[in-house]
DNA sequence: TTAAATCCCGGTATCGTTTGCGTAAATTCA
DNA sequence: TGAATTTACGCAAACGATACCGGGATTTAA
């Protein structure tokens, strides 16, 4: 069964006019008499006429839709970001087409090809944790596809970037842990390929150096799947808790890593923060209800989505190729809660 | 700047052929010599030719995209459902276009018009909590738009429906609370307009009746916005905690209601389950990490999304109008945790 | 040798819309 | 009154791809 809409041709036939006249009447052209306009408009309204967007797309060579590539929709950060993207897109008359990479490089490449072949007018990208080769993205860029990367941006490519101040996020979080008396702070970050990882870890290191605490590389670890898989977090935690220089606090650099560490500690009956403190990047909105209430670095996800979508649409609608690229950096918010409370004397 | 793809015309010109020949060669028609086919295929591959989906859509009168209308993307249940929908759609070559109603009737109507005007081939609907008038949906149905409703289904309209056994979910949850010694079980449900509300409340009532516990209507309340707004939950809780027949347990019938009750109890320092037990419908995946760990009724969200998408695509691709409509009912899962632990003697 | 069959390919209409161009009819100006 | 202008509309091409129809060239059968 098919949903058949009324066309300009139907209106023309019904009113004994040509399609061009109807088209111009609908667009309120000066070439059409007001009498004819009224007839056309009235009939169009009665029949609930809507221009066929596909025919328009073919003619105008634009689809009025934007693609969004994220690693996982069912992730609080990304669903909040998509929320922001969708609101801007709707407002400006664009569709939002979603694709997920599941933190996998091959899926990311095929998703990008998919989006490009579906002729979206532009793409919002947050690269997967498994991506170290950016040639597909670069190809799209070279062929003129408007691109904006957000959150997990692509550092060495020319494009608009929307992200948070990851360095400061990592720095502030670490400083907070130091201030609360923790001496051996571990850092479990996402894939080392990601820009956010590098920046967050740099902030962590600088905070330690500034407070004259040495950096112990055995306290730093990376998750190739950004914590999406429990086992990778488990393995790292096992290693950390067994090693000589056992940490008394952990900075977790992604949503999934944070919650998987909590799950690990619950399983192993490791008390937070008595045995080990925890502070993580997370956008879940009930971290305050966890046991213990979780200290987090939160990102303005919806805001990032909105800004990224606005930049992309501006780029799409610009007459000339974009030459200067913006890098929007939003602040993170640090929520100090029980999981990183002042260290009690052992 | 625009992304310009190669067309069949470009290939024809480059190879000195007509567009029809190229088209047929690409589709491996028997009418084309294998020599010509090879030339065309080789050149197409070299130039990375992809058929323009918009031109195809115009010709075939189908867009290969499906619309999804949910109340809120940034909600664990819906993001999980979209996850399932997206995986099926991708596999079958369809786009997923997302729209949100934010539990608002007017936004739902405009989102439906939006999706229809963007010429999607079909729509997956989970109606908003504010919807009591289904005429827009019915209009779409009458005009032949393939529709499938999921989770919050539209009971009296003819369409495929995918949902969980809400009655049993409510019944089992209530029975569990009774078994654990609770005598005055309140029920805070979503908007009374929703099918899920009616069914869950019916299960709740029947469990009470079966155990010879009377039904006190002052213990049953509804949230017009499905708990999306904290204040509506707060008002109901204030009322419940002050009234004569004060509940010793609560059955919360939506994700947001559940977490907002937890937040309320934390704010007011009401101990769960000592002062009041809590059991809620929720799809968050860290309810086990909350304090206390939260007893929940969980829905197979991704599975529902997958099944709904499959039904919709089957409907779209069917030659003749669908006459018999399926109602798929999936089981809920009850997780018994600390928030509904056995009642301690007061 | 001629008619029929087969093989390959091109021309053209079509989907729905916009737009440049052409042109009758109506109007204005000299 | 005749010419110039304006008004108001239709024709046809274009966007990219497909498919029906038709036809020239070669091969096969009679």
Secondary structure layout plus pairing:
The structure is a homodimer of 346-residue chains.
Chain A: H1 8-15, H2 19-26, H3 34-46, H4 53-60, E1 65-70, H5 76-92, E2 95-100, H6 105-117, E3 122-125, H7 135-142, E4 147-150, E5 160-164, H8 166-179, E6 185-189, H9 195-210, E7 220-222, H10 230-242, E8 249-252, H11 255-267, E9 277-281, E10 295-298, H12 301-317, E11 327-330, E12 333-335
Parallel strand pairs in A: 1-2, 1-3, 3-4, 4-5, 5-11, 6-7, 6-8, 8-9, 9-10
Antiparallel strand pairs in A: 10-12
Helix pairs in contact in A: 1-2, 5-12, 8-9, 10-11
The structure holds a DNA duplex (30 and 30 nucleotides).
Report on this structure:
The structure is a homodimer of 346-residue chains. In chain A, the strands form two sheets. Chain A has a six-stranded parallel beta sheet with strand order 2-1-3-4-5-11, with helices on both faces. In chain A, β6, α9 (195-210) and β7 form a beta-alpha-beta unit. Helix content of chain A is 43%, strand content 15%. Chain A is elongated and about 90 Å long. The mean pLDDT of chain A is 93. By secondary structure, chain A is α/β, with parallel strands linked by helices. Chain A has twelve helices and twelve strands. At the A-B interface, α4, α5, β2, α6 and α11 of A face α4, α5, β2, α6 and α11 of B. The structure holds a DNA duplex (30 and 30 nucleotides).
């Amino acid at each position: 069964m098919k949903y058949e809409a009324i066309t300009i041709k139907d209106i023309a036939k019904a009113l004994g006019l040509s399609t061009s006249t109807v088209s111009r009447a609908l667009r309120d052209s000066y070439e059409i008499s007001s009498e004819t306009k009224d007839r056309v408009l009235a009939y169009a309204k009665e029949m609930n006429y809507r221009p066929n967007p596909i025919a328009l797309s073919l003619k105008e060579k634009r689809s009025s839709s934007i693609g969004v590539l994220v690693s996982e929709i069912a992730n609080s950060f990304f669903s909040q970001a998509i929320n922001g993207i969708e609101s801007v897109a709707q407002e400006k008359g664009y569709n939002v087409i979603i694709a997920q990479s599941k933190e996998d490089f091959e899926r990311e490449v095929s998703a990008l090809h998919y989006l490009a072949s579906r002729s979206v007018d532009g793409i919002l990208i947050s690269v997967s944790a498994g991506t170290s080769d950016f040639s597909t993205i670069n190809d799209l860029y070279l062929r003129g596809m408007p691109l904006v990367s957000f959150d997990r941006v692509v550092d060495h490519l020319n494009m608009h970037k929307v992200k948070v101040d990851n360095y400061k996020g990592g720095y502030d979080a670490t400083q907070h842990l130091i201030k609360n008396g923790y001496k051996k702070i571990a850092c479990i970050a996402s894939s080392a390929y990601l820009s956010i990882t590098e920046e967050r870890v740099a902030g962590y290191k600088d905070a330690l150096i500034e407070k004259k605490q040495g950096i112990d590389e055995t306290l730093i670890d990376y998750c190739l799947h950004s914590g999406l898989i429990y086992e990778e977090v488990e393995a790292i935690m096992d290693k950390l808790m067994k090693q000589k220089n056992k940490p008394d606090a952990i900075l977790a650099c992604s949503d999934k890593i944070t919650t998987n560490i909590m799950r690990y500690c619950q399983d192993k009956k490791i008390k937070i923060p008595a045995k080990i403190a925890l502070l993580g990047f997370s956008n879940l909105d009930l971290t305050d209800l966890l046991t213990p209430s979780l200290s987090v670095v939160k990102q303005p996800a919806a805001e990032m989505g909105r800004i990224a979508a606005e930049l992309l649409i501006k780029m799409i609608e610009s007459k000339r190729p974009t030459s200067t690229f913006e890098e929007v950096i939003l602040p993170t918010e640090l929520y100090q809660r029980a999981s990183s409370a002042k260290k009690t004397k052992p």
